[in-house]
Design goal:
Helix content: under 10%
Shape: globular
Structural class: mainly beta
Number of strands: 29
Radius of gyration: 20 Å
Strand order of the largest sheet: 1-29-28-27
Distance between the termini: 7 Å
Oligomer: single chain
Order of helices and strands: EEEEEEEEEEEEEEEEEEEEEEEEEEEHEE
Length: about 450
């Protein structure tokens, strides 16, 4: 059965004078996020048509029962770098109701701000403007030392606390670091480096928490030296494409933690790293590589993963092991058995835009895939959006096309908390304008109760 046509809610106008996308990239794990019946979103936009070189973070909220947004801009922080890595992330801590933002990084110092307590837990009583947020800081709450050399921050809600992770270093030469935030103290604690790169770097498909377990899947990218790569103030490593590109990605890897990231286990349940002992998950650990595909076979960094309600792990990525590029659904059952299936009805491109997944309470998995023609995930190529559905009832093998449409040019993002809350598939996208109009940032809403 096809999905009903979605409602479309406009957030704002996408920046006009940028080559690379900043609103709607696959590394934005939480850019559209629901909490206790309210939905939150962030995007970069100009303050006016006259000032287009600098753009600013706009933060929006609404009760999910309304279609209009309350929006304000942080006018104290102009974003000026035309780099698709420098996107925004949102985190919400359930325990104290704080809202956290991290933004504008590509191997840079931390840019971080957070709200007063209770803003998310009592939104109807909370003022909604920049006065309830801190200024931009290069330190985390409770951590005195500034954080540098940071890319791809992520927030993950865990029970009443929250995890903050990011990549250190550069493409092909970096690791993943982990902090945990306490709602009781309002402070972070450094846990350590949970994924260590060794002449490579891990690119994670996501960091997810379900049934008291954190799951992570990733691909490694091997390092290729280039001119001035080791200069302290070099910028060559910030290029959108270069010698350390997707051609150096290889294999699919998996690890999980049952103690909020303090220790990590391999696919067989064996503990392989204890962060309090200075250990990390490393490429030479046994039992973490779950699928082998060599460099040059099209594995993408930061595609997607989602965990179903039974603890099954679903990974979206692509490879050319069959002789041509295919999007694949890699699945680990709750019993620990891995399978893989190619996705029909859609064409995967080497370097093309990346998709996202969502899972319902019935354990149906939706694949939201951009049918873009460009071969750089950060460009503005336009195409349809394709939605596929697969069901647990039929062994996660019955891929059905349930919607196709639009003129979209970003990598789709999904509000998984909203799907948990009221069975609405809520998507964040950049939509091309018509008749000379500028592109806009929109939220599409599919009511799955009607399916």
């Amino acid at each position: 059965m096809m999905l009903e046509e979605p409602a479309e809610l406009v957030l704002g106008t996408d920046p006009a004078d940028r080559q690379w996308l900043l609103n709607g990239t696959s590394s934005q794990q939480n850019i559209l996020l629901s909490f206790r019946g309210w939905q939150y979103a962030a995007f970069y936009a100009s303050l006016s048509a006259r000032e287009s070189k600098s753009i600013y973070i706009h933060l929006a909220r609404r009760p999910v029962t309304r279609s209009s947004w309350e929006i304000f801009a942080f006018e104290d922080y102009p974003q000026t770098t035309d780099d698709g890595h420098n996107a925004i992330q949102i985190g919400i801590c359930e325990g104290d109701g704080t809202i956290h933002l991290s933004y504008d990084h590509h191997s840079d110092q931390l840019h971080y701000r957070y709200s007063k307590a209770g803003i998310a837990t009592h939104p109807g009583q909370a003022q909604w403007d920049c006065s309830v947020f801190s200024g931009t800081s290069d330190t985390l709450p409770g951590i005195a030392t500034p954080i540098n050399d940071l890319t791809y921050p992520r927030f993950l809600s865990v029970d009443r606390g929250m995890i903050f992770s990011y990549r250190t270093g550069m493409a092909g030469l970096g690791s993943e670091r982990l902090y945990i935030y306490s709602s009781q103290s309002g402070h972070y604690t450094l846990m350590g480096t949970y994924l260590e790169g060794v002449e490579n770097n891990p690119y994670i498909n996501g960091l997810d928490y379900r049934n008291s377990r954190i799951h992570v899947t990733w691909t490694y990218r091997d390092f290729v030296p280039f001119e001035n790569w080791d200069k302290p103030k070099g910028v060559n490593h910030k290029r959108q494409a270069g010698p350390n590109g997707i051609e150096n990605n290889h294999d699919l890897w998996y690890s999980y933690s049952d103690d909020l990231g303090r220790s990590w286990k391999n696919d067989f349940g064996q503990t392989i790293a204890r962060l309090d002992k200075g250990e990390s998950v490393r490429p030479d650990n046994d039992g973490i590589k779950v699928f082998s595909f060599p460099k040059g076979c099209g594995a993408h960094n930061q595609e997607d993963q989602v965990i179903d309600y039974d603890g099954g792990v679903h990974v979206l990525n692509r490879d050319a092991m069959s002789g041509h590029m295919q999007w694949k659904h890699y699945y680990r059952s709750p019993l620990g058995t891995w399978t893989q299936n190619p996705l029909p009805h859609v064409t995967a491109l080497l370097g093309g835009k990346r998709g996202v997944m969502a899972v319902t309470k019935q354990n149906d998995v939706y694949f939201i895939l951009p049918e873009n023609r460009g071969t750089n995930s950060g460009d503005r190529s336009v195409g349809d959006l394709i939605v596929l559905k697969v069901t647990e009832e039929r062994g996660f093998k019955d891929y059905v096309l349930v919607w196709r449409g639009g003129r979209f040019s970003s990598e789709p993002r999904v509000d998984r908390a909203r799907l948990d809350y009221d069975d609405v598939l809520s998507l964040y996208l950049r939509k091309e304008g018509s008749d000379g109009q500028l592109p806009s940032i929109v939220v599409l809403e599919f009511n799955l109760k009607l399916v």
